[in-house]
């Protein structure tokens, strides 16, 4: 019974290593306890298609505590992505949030690579004013280009071609003269013969291990966040490039998130915080994963940090919204002075716009004047006399003249549009009727697909997956599947323009 308690304690409460179990129990031999712990964990093991450098299959323990951690992060990523994507791209609020995130990304790269550039240079990079600099500092410029490449190409499959293009952007070159690393890591750890701990993969294993990673990305059924962090771990384990392997690991993790379900907005989040995690702690975890082939140690460590990061991202978005509202509330138009008028009947001070009052007076003066004769009827007062006599007086009241009509001449200025046509569109009532008709005619059509098509079926126009995602408020993968289904049903024709797929309505009877 005690063994089961320890098994749950060192798995659910804390996913502990064998060394940590020995330290907490303060016993000379933890083998009996450790056997019970591994037996409990084995009930939740999931084996991945990836292998360690020693060719041991990586496994993941999906126990309740770890699953809860993963689900919490997935929900937070969805909330962050939703809140960020709902901000209008041209709004001041979006510019503030985007500036905060972009600057943090460059600051983190500056810290990780120890470039020692100042804020002025980083600001110039963000304004896209830097054309040339020393090669090390050009990393900041090229990294932004790499992020933009992911945004433009997140619908393309993640394979060796995708990685090569991404790495070329990071190096700032049009064509790669070399790709994977061709020289062995000179770290002394790699030359140990017994209980060797690799700091990178041998050269002959880089290509087959990377091919396994591409297969894992395309075929794994793990959640998007799990798949992204496993990708980040595996590239850092292999270190396939002579330089910037760590940056490539973060970029590939973002690419996986964008491809899986979050779209291009996830690329702007400063997940580069993973680069500056304490090196000693990260190294210790990599050693543990290599010894046990249990990647859960890394998942547990990184996901706890990512949950905190998402909280910070949501706070940043919320603060930007509050700041935007505060600035609008306290903003005063300098062109129109405001006078304070004290009202005698109360102690309150009312504000009155002098120009607004003048405008109202001018409007009253410009109003058509209608003359109207008013007949005042004065009724004689009765006088008291010694002998009261009732006096009945009839007053003849003339009719009031009808007001004279005044003709006001109004001149309209005809404004011209830059386009010579009016776009064809259905109003909402027609769209609802068309949506219902589509569902009744085609049983294979889903409700969301009918709703989107009924409002996006203009001949000659080109629609995108991003439009479907925004219109239906769904995940990117759902939008992609729905648009492809509409293409299969011959509602759209799918074409590729540069690196982007568009969907053109097909004429139907």
Question: Uncertain runs with pLDDT below 50, 5 residues or more?
Answer: 332-386, 391-396
- SS class: mainly alpha
* Head-to-tail CA distance between termini: 72 Å
Instruction: Tally the helices.
Output: 18
Mean pLDDT: 81
Number of strands: 6
Spatial order of strands in the largest sheet: 1-2
Q: What overall geometry do the principal axes of the alpha carbons give?
A: globular
CATH fold label of the largest domain:
Fic-like fold
Instruction: Identify the CATH class of the largest domain.
Output: Mainly Alpha
- What is the CATH H-level superfamily of the largest domain? Fido-like domain
Number of domains: 2
The CATH architecture of the largest domain comes to Orthogonal Bundle
Rg (C-alpha, Å): 36 Å
* Share of helix, binned: 40-55%
Q: Classify the beta-strand content into a percent band.
A: 5-15%
Series of secondary-structure elements, N-terminal to C-terminal: HHHEEHHHHHHHHHHEEHHHHHEE
Structure write-up:
- The structure is a single chain.
- The protein has 18 helices and six strands.
- With 509 residues, it is mainly alpha-helical.
- The protein folds into two domains: 280 residues, Fic-like fold (Orthogonal Bundle); 78 residues, Arc Repressor Mutant, subunit A (Orthogonal Bundle), CATH 1.10.10.
- β1 and β2 form a beta hairpin.
Topology:
Elements: H1 2-13, H2 18-25, H3 31-41, E1 45-51, E2 57-61, H4 64-85, H5 92-113, H6 119-126, H7 138-153, H8 160-171, H9 203-219, H10 224-238, H11 245-262, H12 279-292, H13 296-330, E3 338-342, E4 349-353, H14 354-366, H15 428-441, H16 447-455, H17 465-472, H18 476-488, E5 492-497, E6 500-505
Antiparallel strand pairs: 1-2, 3-4, 5-6
Helix pairs in contact: 1-3, 4-13, 5-13, 7-8, 7-11, 9-10, 10-11, 12-13, 15-16, 17-18
């Amino acid at each position: 019974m005690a063994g089961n308690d320890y098994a749950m304690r060192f798995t659910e409460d804390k996913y502990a290593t064998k060394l940590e179990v020995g330290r907490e129990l303060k016993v000379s031999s933890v083998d009996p306890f450790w056997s019970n712990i591994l037996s409990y964990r084995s009930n939740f093991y999931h084996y991945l298609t990836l292998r360690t450098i020693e060719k041991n299959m990586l496994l993941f323990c999906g126990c309740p505590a770890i699953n809860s951690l993963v689900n919490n992060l997935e929900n937070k990523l969805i909330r962050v992505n939703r809140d960020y994507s709902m901000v209008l791209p041209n709004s001041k609020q979006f510019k503030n949030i985007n500036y905060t995130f972009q600057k943090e990304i460059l600051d983190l790269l500056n810290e990780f690579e120890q470039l020692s550039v100042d804020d002025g240079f980083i600001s110039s990079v963000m304004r896209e004013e830097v054309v040339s600099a020393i090669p090390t500092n050009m990393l900041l410029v090229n990294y932004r280009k790499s992020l933009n490449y992911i945004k433009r190409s997140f619908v393309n499959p993640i394979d060796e071609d995708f990685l090569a293009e991404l790495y070329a952007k990071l190096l700032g070159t049009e064509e790669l003269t070399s790709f994977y690393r061709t020289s062995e890591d000179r770290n002394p750890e790699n030359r140990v013969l017994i209980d060797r701990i690799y700091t990178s993969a041998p050269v002959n294993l880089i290509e087959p291990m990377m091919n396994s990673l591409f297969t894992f990305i395309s075929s794994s059924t793990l959640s998007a966040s799990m798949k992204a962090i496993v990708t980040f771990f595996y590239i850092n384990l292999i270190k396939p490039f002579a330089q910037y392997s760590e940056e490539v690991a973060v970029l590939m993790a973002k690419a996986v998130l964008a491809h899986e379900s979050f779209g291009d907005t996830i690329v702007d989040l400063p997940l580069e915080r993973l680069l500056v995690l304490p090196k000693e702690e990260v190294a210790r975890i990599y050693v543990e994963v290599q010894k046990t082939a249990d990647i859960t140690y890394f998942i547990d460590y990184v996901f706890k940090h990512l949950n905190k990061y998402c909280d910070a991202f949501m706070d940043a978005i919320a603060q930007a919204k509050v700041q935007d509202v505060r600035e609008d509330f306290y903003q005063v138009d300098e062109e129109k002075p405001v006078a304070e008028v004290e009202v005698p009947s109360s102690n309150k001070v009312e504000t009155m716009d002098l120009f607004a009052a003048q405008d109202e007076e001018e409007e009253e003066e410009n109003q058509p004047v209608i003359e109207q004769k008013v007949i005042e009827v004065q009724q004689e007062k009765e006088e008291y006399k010694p002998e009261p006599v009732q006096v009945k007086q009839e007053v003849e009241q003339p009719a009031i003249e009808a007001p004279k009509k005044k003709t006001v001449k109004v001149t309209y200025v005809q404004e011209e549009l830059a386009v010579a046509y009016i776009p064809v569109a259905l109003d909402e009532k027609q769209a609802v009727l068309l949506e219902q008709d589509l569902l009744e005619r085609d049983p294979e059509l889903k409700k969301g697909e009918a709703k989107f098509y009924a409002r996006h079926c203009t001949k000659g126009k080109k629609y995108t997956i991003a439009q479907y995602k925004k219109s239906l408020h769904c995940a990117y993968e759902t939008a992609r599947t729905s648009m492809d289904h509409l293409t299969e049903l011959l509602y759209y024709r799918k074409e590729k323009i540069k690196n982007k797929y568009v969907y053109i309505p097909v004429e139907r009877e």
